[in-house]
Amino acid sequence: MLEAVIDNFPGGILLTDRNLEVVLCNQQQKQLLQYPASLFEDGNPSLRELFHFNAARGEYGPGDVNEIVKQKMDLVRKREAHVFERVRPNGQVIEIRGTPLAAGGFVSSYTDVTENRQKQQGIAALALTDGLTGLSNRLHFDDRLVHAFAFAKRGEHFAVHFIDLDDFKPINDQYGHDAGDVVLKEIAKRLKTAVRETDTVARIGGDEFVVIQAKVTELKDALHLAERMVHSVHLPINCAGRILKVGASLGLALSQTAPVDPHQVLKQADQAMYAAKKRGKGVISVFEADKG
Question: How far apart are CA 79 and CA 102, in angstroms?
């Protein structure tokens, strides 16, 4: 009966006695951890031998094999119950649960939780992503803004570009929201293409986009990107055979002008964007601290 339970357990089981000798290693465990048959051809290996085999093939990451084995054995001798996850070199995520036994041995179960963790990561990613464009949403943008500000305190400054589309509402009114969605998705692609991988592009409102440009040392570097993005937005968009055009009013602020609060940089870029709107379409306006 016990053998049937062990053989049908949906994961690996490893049982050791008080001398840390392996008493049982079920078939699921051997398959899950990809143990070769040669490891068991002379009977069950000791726990130390299993640790050594795993360490030698990089199962526990880089480091001196003997030192890794020593650390593992020291932990086992503490006889403490534990639950943790390990990411294998092949990307597989294994949940390991260990329980000390009254007789002095130890039983550990090994479960493949890779699929569950991938689903959780996907859900977490969705919570930080704009559903229409695939860009960062306001929540993720705020997180990246705080992160950028932390680097700015150490001298690695950044710029915030606040982009509001020109002539977008007439497209929605004349051609419908489906056409508007096509435009928004195309603009998102263009903005992503214009920036570097270290920059962040987010959609924070209906037709409002913001960009965190990392590692900006001079205003001219930020202006160069601003001009590139405004030009990119203005290019014609093919929507089901119709040629649609929008523009962009862009407000620009540098982290140097907001030494206290990261969100102050966003407010400054927002103010600069409204100043650009007042001056006309397709305008870039830079926030100037002395003008408020």
Answer: 10
At residue 119, the pLDDT reads: 75
Q: Distance (Å, rounded) from C-alpha 292 to C-alpha 287?
A: 8
Q: Can you read off the two tokens belonging to residue 91?
A: 């990307």
Q: Is-catalytic flag, 164?
A: no
Closest by alpha carbon to 276, among 234, 235, 248, 245?
248
Question: Is domain 2-118 annotated with CATH 3.40.190.10?
Answer: no
What CA–CA distances, in Å, run from 78 to 26, 55, 59, 74, 102? 24, 20, 22, 7, 14
From the list 130, 164, 166, 207, the catalytic residue is: 207
Q: Which two tokens stand for residue 137?
A: 């949403």
Domain ranges of the chain: 2-118, 129-291
pLDDT digit string, tens, across residues 25-46: 888 889 888 999 999 988 899 8
pLDDT exceeding 70 applies to what percent of the chain? 93
Query: Is the domain defined by 129-291 classed in CATH 3.30.70.270?
Result: yes
Overall average pLDDT of the 60-83 stretch: 89
pLDDT digits (tens, 9 = 90+) for 233-250: 999 999 888 899 999 999
CA distance 173 to 195: 31
Band of the pLDDT at 121, cuts 50, 70, 90? low
- Read off the pLDDT of residues 80-101 as tens digits, 9 standing for 90 and up: 888 888 888 888 888 999 898 8
- The backbone torsions φ and ψ at residue 105, rounded to the nearest 5 degrees and listed phi first, read -85, -165
